[in-house]
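Question thread 4412

I'm putting together a teaching handout and wanted feedback from people who do this every day. The idea is simple: show students a protein as raw sequence, then show them the C-alpha cells that encode its fold, then repeat with a second protein so they can compare. Below is the first pair exactly as I plan to print it.
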Amino acid sequence: MDGRAEGLVQRRRNVPTRDVYIEDEAAAEARLNGGQDLGGDNDHDSKETRLTLMEEVLLLGLKDKEGYTSFWNDCISSGLRGCILIELALRGRIELERAGMRRKGLLSRKVILKNADPCGDVLLDEALKHIKETDYPENIQTWIEYLSGETWNPLKLRYQLKNVRERLAKNLTEKGVLTTEKQNFLLFDMTTHPVTDGSIKNRLIKKVQDSVLAKWVNDPHRMDKRVVSLIFLAHASDVLENAFAPLNDDDYDVAMKRVRDLLDMDLEAESAKGGTNEIMWAVFTAFIK
C-alpha cells in the first residue's frame, strides 16, 4: 500500500482566514453526538445523528457546494476501508491475534473475530460477515486490500465492499448532513451530495483542529481513540489538509508539526502500551509503513 508518511502537503500561503464556526457550539455538539458516546471500546449501535469514523473522513473530503471528493484523490478509497476496520475494533467486534513470545509485528498478526453480533450499520456488518466467513485469518494489510478490491486473487474479490462512498453519503443524507443532487459533467451525469447542514461539518473541523492545538496533550494515549484514528485516517485519505485550511499560518504550522510528531512515532512500541486498541495501531502502520 502506498505509504503517506514521506511528507504532509504544505498549504499555499496567503490563504484568507475565515471564521467558520458561526453556530452555537453546544447545539452543534448535540447534533453531532446525538447525546451518545461511541468512544473507547464501548458498543453503541444507534445511527441517529452520531457520525461513524468513515462518515467523518468522507465529510472532510467532500467539497461543500459541489458535493463530491477531489477527482485527484486516489487515497480515500483504501482510507475508508481502514476506517471500517477501526470502527469494528472500537465496537469490540475484531481484534489481533496475540503477539506471542516472539512478539510478532502488527502487520504479521492475523485479524480474528471477537464478537459476531451485528453492529446495525450495513457497511460494518458486511465487512464483519466477510471476516467471519473467511477460510483462513488474514492480517490488517490484506483485509484493507480485500475490502478495497485490490487483490490479484479472483477468489477474494467477493470480499470487496462496493460503492462505499455513495453508501456513506446516503447515510449522511439520512442524518440531515448532506443532500442529493444530479450534476451534468458534459459527457455524463453524476449524483452529488452537497453539504446541507454546515454546522456539523464545522464542528467536525473544529474537533480536528482542537485536538492538535487547544486540546493538544502530546500523548496519543491520553487522546480519545476516535480522534487519534480520525487524524491518522484523514491523513491516509489525503483529506486532513481540508480541516486545517481555515487556520491562520501560525496555527497551521503548529498543527502540521504536531501531526508530523504523531506520524513519526514508533507505532509498534505505542501499540504495546497498556490500554491500547491494537487494530488501530495496525491500521496506522499499514498506511504509514
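The second pair follows. I'd like the answer to focus on this one:
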Amino acid sequence: MKLSLSSLIALSCLIMTVTLSGLGCSTQRDVRIEIYGDHTTPTPDCVILLHGLARTSDSMLPLSDALHAQHYTVVNVDYPSRHFPIADLAEQAIPPALAQCRQTAAPKIHFVTHSLGGIVLRQYLQQHTIPELHRVVMLAPPNKGSQIVDKLKPIPVFGWINGPAGNELGTTAKSLPNTLGKVDFELGVIAGTTSVNLLLSLYLPNPDDGKVSLENTKIDGMRDFIALPVSHPYIMKDKDTIVQILHFLAQGYFLHTPESGQ
C-alpha cells in the first residue's frame, strides 16, 4: 500500500503518542480483577473501573485510590482490549466484575470508564440488564466514534496497534458505537479539550482531546456533561476530573461553575 506523506506523518505521531503516554504495550489476553474493599462502611456501593484501549488497570489506580478513600468498594478490571472485538470484551470483562461487587452485597453498582471502556459497557447493556446499576461516568468516550479511526484504519499497522476493537470505533452509521442507540441509565460524560498530539487533532473537529472530538463524546440520554482542559491519555488521572467523578457518583450531576459557562 502506498501511503501519502500526511498519512505517514500522522501514523508516526500516533505511534509516538502510544509510546510516550503508555497507551500501548498491553499484551495480556485474559481478564484480571483487582478489588479494594471498605471495612468501615456497611455494604458500601461498588464502583467498577474499565480502562481504555491498549491501556491497563494501572492507568485507573489514582482514581481507584480516590474512590476507596470515599469508602467505595472498587473493582478495577484489566481486560485484553487489543485482542478481541468489543462484543467479546464486554462478555469477558463485565460479568466477573459484577460478580465481585455482588459478593460484597453492594446495594448499588456504579461504573467509571475511560474511552473504549464506555463503549464496552454500552455494548454489554445492549444484551443484559444490571439491576443494581446506579450511576455511570464516562471519560472521553467515543460515543459517536472517532474520525482518526476513519482516516487511519486502512493502514495495516493501525490494526496491529489497536486490534479489532480499535477498528470498530469509526464514525460511520454502521460503526459499533453508532449502532448502540441512546442510553437509558444515569450517565455523566466528561470530555477533554486539550491535545498532546496536534497532528492527530487535525483529523478531528475542534475542540478535541487528541483522540475524540468533544461533540463525539456526547450521547442521547446522558444526564449531564462537562468539558475540562485535559487530554485523552491523562483524563482519568486529572485531579479536577476525579473531583467531578466523585461529585457525580454522589449527587447525580457535575459541579458547574458560572465562570466556565457550563
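Top answer:
Good format. For the second protein you could add a caption like this: The radius of gyration is 17 Å. Residues 86-103 form the longest helix (18 residues).
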